[in-house]
Amino acid sequence: MKKESKLNVKGTEIAVINLGSEDYISLTDMVKGYEDGSVLIEKWLRNKNTIVFIGIWEQLNNQDFNSPEFEGIKNEAGLNRFTLSVKKWIEKTNAKGLFAKTGRYGSGTFAQKDIAFEFGSWLSPEFKLYLIKEFQRLKEEEYRTKSLEWNLQRTLAKVNYRIHTDSIKENLIPPQVTKAQINFIYANEADILNVALFGITAKEWRDSNLNKKGNIRDFAVLEQLIVMVNLESMNAELIRLGLSQSERLKRLNEIAINQMKSLAKSISIKKLK
């Protein structure tokens, strides 16, 4: 599920789109105050330092990134004949840090926040500092809102709303993890939580839902998101206690099952709009 916000940087309104756990900032909006703004994005993207930066970002954050293609593009960068568009970059490397968008959630070129900050620095160090400050303000505001929603959720949880059908109850209860899942070595902590609550990794969900945009958590119901928040806190504590990955997965899955069963038996928290 996409969520759009707005930043106001020195009088320029800049769109921010949240896709799952990542925030993407409109580069198109960032250059609205500059002459030939769209040309600046193309010029920045052809810069070899830019290619190196976004390539390293992809290698650190995108397991599906095509590194051999990236090396080829990097070697060509700087040559007089070299050209590169966002579309070409994505098609060749399977990148996810940049995308071009038209439609309801704004049009133009969007970049993950780290990449957008780098672009801001290329435009103007002053602009970058104002952009970061405004982005931090937005995040603080969102945090306060979420805290208020959490208190409201706790209040609603005390009200005896019943989940109306057995089928809904069954779909909400996480499956018990198998021995194979417990013994598997997961690449990141997010997938441990996904398996504990949903029974599958993010990649397994994507492979089974090729027609859907976003990630597994974008399609979770509010009850599952509430339990996920609890699991994240519990996982941090289990890591501090030195438990192995397999031990943590087993415990987190047990917690997820118990909490979802509790919710399914007694309450159905209304979705907050």
What is the SS-derived class?
A: alpha+beta
Shape: globular
**Overall number of strands:** 5
Show unreliable segments. 155-170, 267-273
Q: How many domains is the backbone divided into?
A: 2
Question: What integer value in Å does the Rg equal?
Answer: 22 Å
Helicity level:
55-70%
| SSE pattern, N- to C-terminal | EEEHHHHHEEHHHHHHHH
User: Approximately how much beta-strand content do the residues carry?
Assistant: 5-15%
Distance between the termini: 13 Å
Number of discrete helical segments: 13
Task: Give the overall average pLDDT.
Answer: 81
Strand order of the largest sheet: 1-2-3-5-4
The biggest sheet, with number of strands, parallel, antiparallel or mixed sense and barrel status, is:
5 strands, antiparallel
Describe this entry's structure for a reader:
With 273 residues, the protein is α+β, with helices and mostly antiparallel strands. It has 2 domains: 2-140, no CATH class; 159-266, no CATH class. Helices cover 59% and strands 11% of the residues. The chain has 13 helices and 5 strands. α10 runs parallel beside α13. The longest helix is centred in the middle third of the chain and has 33 residues, at 125-157. The model is unreliable at 155-170 and 267-273 (pLDDT under 50).
